[in-house]
Amino acid sequence: MIDLRGRHFLSTLDFSSGELCAITDLALKIKRDEMHGRLPGKVLSLLFFNPSVRTRVSCESAMARMGGHAITLNPGKDTWNFEHGEGVVMDGNTQEHVKELAPVLSSFCDAIGIRKSELITTGANRAEVTASYDELKQDLFINRFTEFSNKPVINLESNSSHPLQGLADMATLKEEFGEPRGRKYVLTWAYHPKPLPVATPHSQLLAAADLGMDITILRPPGYDLDGEFVEAARNRTGAQGGSLEVTDDIDSAYDGAQAVCAKSWGSLEYYGRFDEEARMKQALKAAWIVDEAKLARTDDAIFMHCLPVRRNVVVTDGVIDSPRSVVLKEAENRLWTVAALLQCLLGG
Amino acid sequence: MIDLRGRHFLSTLDFSSGELCAITDLALKIKRDEMHGRLPGKVLSLLFFNPSVRTRVSCESAMARMGGHAITLNPGKDTWNFEHGEGVVMDGNTQEHVKELAPVLSSFCDAIGIRKSELITTGANRAEVTASYDELKQDLFINRFTEFSNKPVINLESNSSHPLQGLADMATLKEEFGEPRGRKYVLTWAYHPKPLPVATPHSQLLAAADLGMDITILRPPGYDLDGEFVEAARNRTGAQGGSLEVTDDIDSAYDGAQAVCAKSWGSLEYYGRFDEEARMKQALKAAWIVDEAKLARTDDAIFMHCLPVRRNVVVTDGVIDSPRSVVLKEAENRLWTVAALLQCLLGG
Amino acid sequence: MIDLRGRHFLSTLDFSSGELCAITDLALKIKRDEMHGRLPGKVLSLLFFNPSVRTRVSCESAMARMGGHAITLNPGKDTWNFEHGEGVVMDGNTQEHVKELAPVLSSFCDAIGIRKSELITTGANRAEVTASYDELKQDLFINRFTEFSNKPVINLESNSSHPLQGLADMATLKEEFGEPRGRKYVLTWAYHPKPLPVATPHSQLLAAADLGMDITILRPPGYDLDGEFVEAARNRTGAQGGSLEVTDDIDSAYDGAQAVCAKSWGSLEYYGRFDEEARMKQALKAAWIVDEAKLARTDDAIFMHCLPVRRNVVVTDGVIDSPRSVVLKEAENRLWTVAALLQCLLGG
Q1: Which residue, C276, C320, C313, C312, is CA-closest to C295?
Q2: How far is the alpha carbon of C47 from chain B, nearest alpha carbon, in Å?
Q3: Which residue in B36, B54, B331 is closest to C41 by CB distance?
Q4: Of A53, A72, A321, which is closest to B80 when you measure between CB atoms?
Q5: Chain C: residue whose CA lies nearest to B78
Q6: Among residues B211, B266, B274, which one has the least CA distance to residue B243?
Q7: Distance (Å) from the C-alpha of residue A254 to the closest C-alpha of chain B?
């Protein structure tokens, strides 16, 4: 087992492709065998500033099955309000600084997971704009927390990245293809009523890149992902003989695809000008849904999505319910990959 | 031990009287002996759309004592909003379909419990009317969820049924009477400031029926329980030589009773016309409280209530604090019966 | 190990100084050794009416590490509303009486912790005034609950006391000084934008008293702690040769101090007249912050605070980040002391 003790898991970019493959190989081994009792008495604290289903339940279940325990906190609801600014005179709304919070949780627990995204929303509401995208992608809270934590910090989704989803996608691609290298992987944008975060597509893109796939990012004009992540993906896949292209040509992108991963995200160009984006986006609605006709152009591609997914908006019932849909396997792999990661970070 | 692996526990009507007796006998055995360590590493996910004390704590405690773990989710607060409609274009408020939610939770956990009642409320507020009672009793969410779940689904209280309460009442009646068959059991309506759900009295009624008791449903005109459940109870108790009658004659109902189970519920006839019902109900307030005078007519009856109970509204302090009150034993049996059920559903 | 089975832990005043020292000695032993697996299958229920970080996570983590489990409830959010009045006709907003709640939780769990303070707030808001301080300090809910509980009840912070913080402070003082007896301990009031509870300073004061320290309470006029607790502290420390004085002379208080514990609290004289207090308090802001100049007067004192702390309001960054600050050790000792307490209360 690869030993990652003492490391944080904030972005897959902090790990080599080889390390990430080792974690996902361990995950697939755990899936076949048994994970009971591997982390007896270990405690993981989970801070969810945003809602969650898969992330929270997979983390809690993995810890419980391995003989450990996870504690879920909902900051701002069942805790104090937290501060991360340097030198701040704390006479306002915040009550506890990460300079205390991080070492205190570190002394009570063996690892801390944090989900903090200014972009995740529930229901039909849009996120409030609290800063520019360039500021938000700094992920200040989680990075400041990590600075003061003596125990591994795990990113449960920040503004920039969702590396646990990346691990699950890597495991799924390995499981489906054995050797994903050189296969055509399409990450396609899809219409959605709300401007969604870019963290997940960033980490999904990197997952394909760390496997050396031939990647096509298919998105309409104005919907480029963060260039920093696209370039990192290009370099990582290139290092293994893969390639990366960006296009808005739907037909050619689907042609010959072996994996189609659908995801909606908000336009970074329009970030904060949501009404403008909503008007512009209407024209894209019909053309960008993942449907049977598009899938028919592929080389019998598998269909991937991180979930939750809006049916008949992002993807048709026909595609997601088809035998080529691996979305449930991909979700299940969240459990096995986080179990593997926790063993690598905390195992003794 | 009776093996119920792979079954769902949505209603006691899905089980034979014999199977239910086997579960409750196991519960009473566990109560005397020991339940530690029987479900090591097993994980139960609990979805509470409504508040809970007994149900949640008994499930979590039972899992913990048996070496497993329960994860409590509060949908809509710490999760996405869920959809269960077929073929829906999900461009509104809902973000995740049970077609994904159910198999995903199934792959993370060994069983899933769901409390979803449109009729449960907290404090002094009434429930909002979202559909007719006939629609609500379909329990669409939990049934659709179950359709897509690969693991046992446990009803933690729906609009129609509260089968875990039914099991606890069966165990309590067995414990008190040894052989409850042929004893007079009165399920009496009581006044309450709000129109409460019928799920609990339905399952309590069936509990007495599965034990072959001579059942009297005592309620004022306009307060009939759902005929489908009353008929099922009549058939079930009749099959074992018991009987069922419905009356509004308070005195004759209490005469000779050996068990009095009090419960308030809203009028199905008035469902949605709550102000009208409230006015009509005022006249019933004084006459329907369970008090010492009524209990004095009985054959030294035990007093039962599912809890929580509004003291001096549903029942007087004098009755609930008397030695014939078994409400605390009945509540405690929630722990032993759910432990027994979980062993039957998940034990290996 | 000291055997406290069957006792409640509501206030350190219910225990002798010797018993409290035995608990904290055990805590420091556990800190050095190992606490895994000491409470297998034990279940602790935690009722948090108010937010928490340290208390909740330390309790949950301690139980998990010892092989048990803690269940956290947020009354009024995920439960019913509770009643504790005697003989009340419950036709209003409350749905469940502690006469049922306490024995029911007692039958499901091995111990129950309760945090219920009318004075704790989050963010920038002040607490609502629901009663006079003299009424609030009765801690009616927790005391009534305890009356009907068959299992140990642990105070997780009430209006009058926060005994778990007291234990952690005792452990920290023992750890720092070996023999704290006769050393100069200053509990200093500090400015804070909101009127905070007195529960924590009461228990901190008693912690120093149970160790026989020479205590100085440093506070501005109008900020006396509850006389009942001050007198108890005076008697307790006096019984061991220590002393207690109350002063508003900042310089003389700091002179020669070996431990400075900072805490803000609201004026009991002004309780409920918060705007008046806020105006009066402005004049104190600059003079009462714990800063480097004040610490320079001491005999190389350690700096203590219960956390969360408002940096640069209660204490400067320079002091809290200095090597003499033991606030993180003090917080970590919350884990070891609650583990020790739980072993004494529940161990078998």
Answers
A1: C320
A2: 11
A3: B36
A4: A53
A5: C78
A6: B211
A7: 24
Interface partners of A (3+ CB pairs, < 8 Å)?
A: B, C
On whether any CB of chain C is under 8 Å from the CB of A348, the answer is: no
Nearest to B96 by CA among A152, C2, C245, A51: A51
Of the partner residues B73, B96, B109, the one whose CB lies closest to the CB of residue A308: B96
The average pLDDT across C287-311 equals: 98
B88:A312 CB<8 A = yes
Contact check, Cβ <8 Å, A332/B107? yes
- pLDDT tens-digit profile of A305-334? 999 999 999 999 999 999 999 999 999 999
Distances (CA, A) of B230 to B13, B175, B215, B234: 12, 25, 11, 6
Q: Which of residues 222-261 of C touch B (CB under 8 A)?
A: none
Nearest by CB to residue C53, choosing from A41, A69, A80, is: A80
The whole-angstrom separation of Cα C87 and Cα C92 is: 14
For C108, the closest of B58, B124, B310 (CB atoms) is B58
| Phi, psi angles (nearest 5°) of residue B201 | -60, -35
ω into A308 cis (within 30 of 0): yes
Question: Distance of CA C319 to CAs B283, B321, C218, Å?
Answer: 69, 57, 18
A107 touches chain C (CB under 8 A): yes
Decide whether C12-161+334-346 matches C163-330 in CATH topology.
Answer: yes
Query: The tokens of C343 are what?
Result: 């072993």
For the stretch A18-39, pLDDT in tens is 999 999 999 999 999 877 779 9
Torsion of CA B127, B131, B133, B137, to 10 degrees: -100
CB C302 within 8 A of CB C324: yes
pLDDT of residue B185: 98
| Run of H or E residues at A192 | none
Q: Quick one: average pLDDT of C98-117?
A: 97
B64 contacts in C (CB within 8 Å)? 41, 43, 68-69, 71
For B203-243, the DSSP string reads HHHHHHHHTT-EEEEE--TT-PPPHHHHHHHHHHHHTTT-E
How do the domains of chain C map onto residue ranges? Answer: 12-161+334-346, 163-330
Residue B348: per-residue pLDDT: 65
Q: Is the pLDDT of residue A256 over 80?
A: yes
User: Residue B101: its chain A contacts at CB < 8 A?
Assistant: 53, 308
Q: Which of the following CATH numbers is that of domain B165-330: 3.40.50.970, 3.30.70.270, 3.40.50.1370, 3.50.50.60?
A: 3.40.50.1370
Query: Residues A28, A339, A321, CA angle at the centre, nearest 5°?
Result: 60
In angstroms, the CA B168 to CA C3 distance is 35
Query: Over chain B, what is the mean pLDDT?
Result: 95
CB contact under 8 A, C313 and A89: yes
Q: Are A185 and A243 in contact (CB under 8 A)?
A: no
Which ranges constitute the DSSP H helices of C33-185?
54-65, 98-108, 133-136, 140-147, 163-177
CATH number among 1.20.1250.20, 3.40.1400.10, 3.40.50.1370, 1.10.540.10, domain C163-330: 3.40.50.1370
B348 at A interface, C-beta within 8 A: no
Residue C95 is encoded by which pair of tokens?
Answer: 């749905």
ipTM of the complex: 0.95
- Mutation target for C interface from A107, A145, A147, A151: give the one with most C CBs within 10 A: A107
Kindly tell me the sign of the dihedral angle through the C-alpha atoms of A274, A280, A283, A287: negative
Does the model's pTM come out above 0.80?
yes
- B135-179 pLDDT tens trace: 999 999 999 999 999 999 999 999 999 999 999 999 999 999 999
Look up the CATH superfamily of B12-161+334-346: Aspartate/ornithine carbamoyltransferase (3.40.50.1370)
Please indicate whether, in this complex, the C-beta atoms of C308 and A96 are within 8 angstroms of each other. yes
